[in-house]
Amino acid sequence: MSSEPLESSNVVGRRMRSRREELGWSQEKVGVLIGIDESSSRARISRYEVGTHEPPIETARRIAKALGVPLAYLYCDEEDVAMLLKELATQSANQRRALMSQWLEGLR
Fold first, then answer.
1. What gap in Å lies between CA 12 and CA 105, rounded to an integer?
2. In angstroms, rounded to a whole number, what is the distance separating the alpha carbons of residues 81 and 44?
3. Which of 16, 29, 33, 95 has the greatest number of C-beta atoms within 10 Å?
4. Which residues is 5 bridged to in the sheet?
5. 3-state DSSP call for residue 78?
6. Can you state the angle between helices 38-50 and 11-23, rounded to 10 degrees?
7. Exposed, middle or buried: residue 58 (CB in 10 Å: 0-12, 13-18, 19+)?
């Protein structure tokens, strides 16, 4: 995996789309999950994904929660760091603490 920043200035949209497609979900489903009316949910999520609009932070927070990723994942422009954030989010708090301890120990 590369640590190169994403080329697009629309990091949030690219991360949203990537995760949504990974889950096999439609734009409409994501929109409805975050509370957007079904009749406009596809169009609104599409605007976020293509970069026409960037979601306000509270909307981005709801999107991240619906997609099962930390908010930081949506804004991370380095692919390997984003993947690490996504993986860390799947761990329990105890597992994260243990991983952090191991990592810190490795720095010494």
1. 33
2. 27
3. 16
4. 78
5. strand
6. 130
7. exposed
The matching CATH number, chosen from 3.40.640.10, 3.55.40.20, 1.10.260.40, 1.10.8.590, for 11-107 is: 1.10.260.40
Q: CA–CA separation, 15 vs 64, rounded Å?
A: 10
pLDDT one-digit tens code per residue, 5-42: 444 569 999 999 999 999 999 999 999 999 999 999 99
The answer to whether the CB of 69 falls within 8 A of the CB of 19 is yes
Question: Distances from the Cα of 3 to the Cαs of 53, 83, 84, in angstroms?
Answer: 26, 10, 11
The two structure tokens encoding residue 91 = 């761990």
Please state the φ and ψ torsions of residue 78, each to the nearest 5 degrees: -110, 120
Q: Which residue has the tokens 């991983």?
A: 99
pTM attached to this predicted model: 0.82
